[in-house]
C-alpha cells in the first residue's frame, strides 16, 4: 500500500481534482416549468417527512414517477422528474399514490425543518413554510 505525501504538490493536485469533480455529486435538473406542475402543496407529516403533491401533465410519451431532492444548507430543493414511458425512471422519491382524477401525484421525502424550494425550468420558488 502506497501512502500519499500531502506535502508534495502532485499529491495535493490529485486531491483537489477529486473533490471538485462534477462526477462526485449531481446537480438537480429541472424538467418542468413552474406552471406545468402547479398547484404544488407541501405538508409536514409525522416521522420527519413532508408530503409534496403536484400536478402532472397528461402526456402520451412522458410521465412523472416522482421527485429528486437535495439539502443545501437549511434549504431542501426538489425537482419533479420527467421520464419517457419506455424507460424505467428511478427518482429519489417515487410517487406514493396512483394519479387521481385531477392528475396529481404525491411523494414523501425526509424533512427536518428546512425551507422547501421547488426547482423548475423558469424559477426557484419556496413552497414551504
Report on this model:
A hairpin with a 3-residue loop joins β1 and β2 (49-55). Strands 5-3-4-7-8 form a five-stranded mixed sheet, with no helix packed on it. A three-stranded antiparallel sheet has the order 1-2-6, with no helix packed on it. The chain has 129 residues and is mainly β. The protein is globular and about 35 Å long. It has two helices and eight strands. The protein has one domain (26-128).
In terms of topology, how is this protein built?
Layout: H1 9-19, H2 34-37, E1 41-45, E2 49-55, E3 62-72, E4 75-84, E5 93-94, E6 104-110, E7 115-119, E8 124-128
Parallel strand pairs: 4-7
Antiparallel strand pairs: 1-2, 2-6, 3-4, 3-5, 7-8
What would you report as the Rg, rounded to the nearest angstrom? 19 Å
Fraction in beta strands = 35-45%
For the terminal residues, how far apart are their CA atoms?
51 Å
Q: What is the chain-wise order of helices and strands?
A: HHEEEEEEEE
Class of secondary structure makeup: mainly beta
Largest sheet: 5 strands, mixed
Mean pLDDT: 84
Report the helical percentage: 10-25%
> Strand order across the biggest sheet?
5-3-4-7-8
Shape: globular
Number of beta strands: 8
Oligomer, anyone?
Answer: single chain
How many domains make up the coordinates? 1
Q: Count helical runs.
A: 2
| pLDDT < 50 runs, ≥5 residues | 8-25
Amino acid at each position: 500500500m502506497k501512502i500519499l505525501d500531502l506535502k508534495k504538490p502532485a499529491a495535493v493536485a490529485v486531491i483537489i481534482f477529486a473533490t471538485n469533480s462534477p462526477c462526485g455529486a449531481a446537480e438537480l435538473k429541472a424538467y418542468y416549468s413552474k406552471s406545468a406542475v402547479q398547484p404544488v402543496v407541501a405538508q409536514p407529516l409525522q416521522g420527519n417527512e413532508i408530503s409534496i403533491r403536484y400536478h402532472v401533465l397528461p402526456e402520451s410519451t412522458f410521465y412523472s414517477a416522482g421527485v429528486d431532492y437535495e439539502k443545501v444548507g437549511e434549504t431542501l430543493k426538489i425537482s419533479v422528474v420527467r421520464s419517457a414511458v419506455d424507460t424505467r425512471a428511478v427518482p429519489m422519491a417515487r410517487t406514493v399514490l396512483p394519479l387521481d382524477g385531477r392528475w396529481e401525484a404525491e411523494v414523501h421525502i425526509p424533512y427536518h425543518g428546512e425551507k422547501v424550494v421547488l426547482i423548475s425550468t423558469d424559477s426557484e420558488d419556496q413552497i414551504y413554510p
